[in-house]
Structures are given as C-alpha cells and as structure tokens.
Amino acid sequence: MFRGQFIHKISGTGRISVPSKFRDNLKKKYKTNHLILSTFENSIICYPLPEWNKLEDKIAKLPQFKKETVEFERYLIGNAHESEIDSEGRIMVPGILRKKFNINNSAIFVGMLSRFELWSEKDWKKDSANSFKKFQESREVIDEI
Questions:
Q1: Is residue 85 within 8 Å of residue 26, measured between CB atoms?
Q2: Among 32, 2, 1, which Cα is nearest to 118's?
Q3: Rg (CA), the chain
Q4: pLDDT of 145 above 70
Q5: CB 3.0–4.6 Å: which of 21, 72, 98, 117 could bond 110 by disulfide?
Q6: Is the whole model's pTM more than 0.70, yes or no?
Q7: Which CATH number fits the domain that encloses residue 84?
C-alpha cells in the first residue's frame, strides 16, 4: 500500500525520485517499475500498471457512446502517460502534466492505498488547509459502509 507524504525535488527536465517506500511497494506487491500518470482533480494521479489495467477493464465495460463515459475517458485516459522508474529511482513527469499542475521545483507525493498523487507544494498547502474539515465530513460516509 502507498501511505504517507513525501516532498521531492524535480529536475528541469521533469525527473523526480519516487519515494523509496513507494518503489519497494511497487517491486514487492506489483512486481513492476511501470506507472501510469494521469490528471485527477488538482493533482497527477499515479497508478502501478496492474492497478491501471484493472481500471481500464472497468472503463471498457461502460457504455461506449454515453456522453459521461466519453468525457470521463477523454479526461482520464486521454491524459494518461506511461512512465518507467529508472535505475536511479526516478520517473519522468511529462511537461504537459507539470505545466497543468504547476509542478516546478518540487512536488509532494501523497499515498492513496493502491495509487498515489503528485501535487505542487502550493496547491497541496491550499488544498490541505481544508483537509481536516473535509475529513470530518467524509468519515461519516466511511462509517456507513
């Protein structure tokens, strides 16, 4: 599982070191060093390839010509990029994603169980300012499950 928050520097060419705990999880649980990066709300969402394949299987079962399906696919699948962890533990974050989410000098990795997010520090600080309130509101929903 991916847990915790980690701040890492990103190079001018878009290379960033994946937290070692995340790399270990990818190796042990998923037996891969391939990730799919895509857009999700205010951050880049990063899926291990096997988890992404499960998601694509679900999406493929949706009604192909339904407007909501097309919009969903266009946003999530249309912005997806494959990235491989190199020998130094880094991934390449495509320029189009760095630009969209204003990720320049550093980024924050946020663990999300079977996936993780990549945020600009500025946007993470802004979003997390309200996170406790959001947590309080959402925990009731979780309790009902």
A1: yes
A2: 2
A3: 16
A4: no
A5: 117
A6: yes
A7: 3.40.1550.20
Query: For residue 41, what are the domain limits?
Result: 5-143
21-79 residue pLDDT tens: 999 999 999 999 999 999 999 999 999 999 999 999 999 999 999 999 999 999 999 99
Please report the DSSP string for 17-64 in residue order.
EPPHHHHHHIIIII---EEEEEEETTEEEEEEHHHHHHHHHHHHTS-T
Give the separation between CA 100 and CA 78, rounded to whole angstroms: 14
| CB distance 45 to 115 below 8 Å | yes
Q: Which two tokens stand for residue 33?
A: 């060093």
Residue with structure tokens 């020998």? 87
State the Cα–Cα distance between residues 112 and 48, nearest whole angstrom: 12
| DSSP classification of residue 10 | B
Structure tokens at 94: 């495509």
Q: Which helix (H) or strand (E) holds 111?
A: strand 106-111
Q: Provide the domain count of the chain.
A: 1
Taking only the tens place, the pLDDT of each residue in 51-62 is 999 999 999 999
